[in-house]
Design brief:
alpha/beta, seven-stranded parallel β-sheet, binds zinc ion
């Protein structure tokens, strides 16, 4: 999930007001109502333009934590568009400090957070390297991974090989958005060229049994966001039909091929969804209850945390599930 994608209309209105702009919530809602990928990227660019000062990021982070607590989230790895911060000549460290201070009071309330610094693919490898440098520099402060999002068709993975090697040498996990609007080759490149430990979306892998087998064999997890795929047109692209719906989503196929799956919301405010809402889509896809439980547990297993921490979270989840007779 992206912090920038959690900005509810009321928060955007308030952020705009911080900078002397009058906006109303309906305007934000209509900007968010996208049905294809380029419109989505435009909406994302527009909304992040209101995140200008460290205090804006702090405000956004506090709202995000409230949303997470309302969803019973206990742990999350949140993506920050550091590539966008750098493009806008912002002080990444100051933004990150403000975010960390804002979320600190939520830890005693049971919400633990780690961070993924994300580069924008179409900005190229030099800009990506700057993001990776920031991420390595702030590793001790809770950054666990370097990632890359944006337009996966804009530049080949090979251009970023060095940057990913640098991130890995700096002790970070590696993430790539791939196989969202791109094909199975894009997923293959993320795994083979960039050494991704997890892949954002990766739904295109379902079109190639060899790619699915490779992900399963190497335990490379996919972060799947069904409503996002519907709303960005990624699912229609995958299915080859403009009217593709959730029953066409390849999540069950990927899961049953033995690929680790975790479920997420991507940009919940923009797609008007919640994590609980995403879990209810699994029913619509025809998954059975033990499978749904296994996907919930998969999020803990695939976390970028030390093994002991993951086991503790998983045990606590199982105890709670048992108490609720799930
Ligand atoms: Zn994403």
């Amino acid at each position: 999930m992206h912090l920038e994608g959690t900005l509810e209309p009321a928060t955007v209105v308030s952020l705009a007001r911080n900078h002397g702009h009058a906006l109303d919530e309906d305007t934000v809602r209509s900007r968010y109502a996208t049905r294809d990928f380029s419109a989505f990227i435009e909406a994302y660019k527009w909304v992040t333009s209101y995140l200008r000062a460290p205090s804006d990021y702090a405000q956004a982070a506090r709202r995000m934590c409230e949303q997470m607590l309302a969803q019973n989230v206990v742990y999350a790895e949140v993506t920050l568009s550091v590539g966008v911060m750098l493009l806008r000549k912002q002080d990444v460290e100051a933004n990150f400090c403000a975010i960390r201070e804002a979320v600190e009071p939520y830890e005693p309330r049971g919400l633990r957070l780690r961070w993924i610094f994300d580069a924008v693919r179409q900005f190229g490898p030099d800009a990506a390297r700057e993001v990776a440098q920031c991420a390595v520099g702030l590793r001790g402060a809770g950054v666990v991974a370097f990632g890359m999002g944006g337009d996966e068709l804009s530049r080949p993975a090979a251009e970023f090989r060095e940057v990913y090697n640098y991130a890995a040498a700096g002790g970070l996990h590696r993430l790539v958005h791939a196989g969202e609007i791109g094909g199975p080759d894009s997923v293959l490149d993320a795994a083979n060229i960039l050494g991704a430990g997890r892949i954002g979306h990766g739904i295109a892998a379902a079109a190639d049994p060899k790619v699915m087998a490779l992900l399963a064999e190497r335990s490379i997890g996919l972060e799947i966001c069904p409503t996002s795929n519907l709303r960005t047109g990624a699912l229609a692209g995958y299915a080859g039909r403009a009217d593709a719906g959730l029953p066409d989503h390849p999540l069950p196929k990927l899961f049953r091929a033995g690929i680790p799956i975790s479920l997420s919301t991507d940009d919940p405010a923009m797609f008007d969804t919640t994590l609980i809402g995403e879990f209810s889509t699994l029913d619509e896809m025809g998954l059975h209850k033990p499978e749904i439980m296994s996907i919930a547990e998969g999020a803990f297993r695939g976390a970028f945390l030390p093994q002991g921490d993951k086991s503790a979270l998983l045990q606590a989840f199982r105890a709670k599930a048992q108490a609720l007779r799930l």
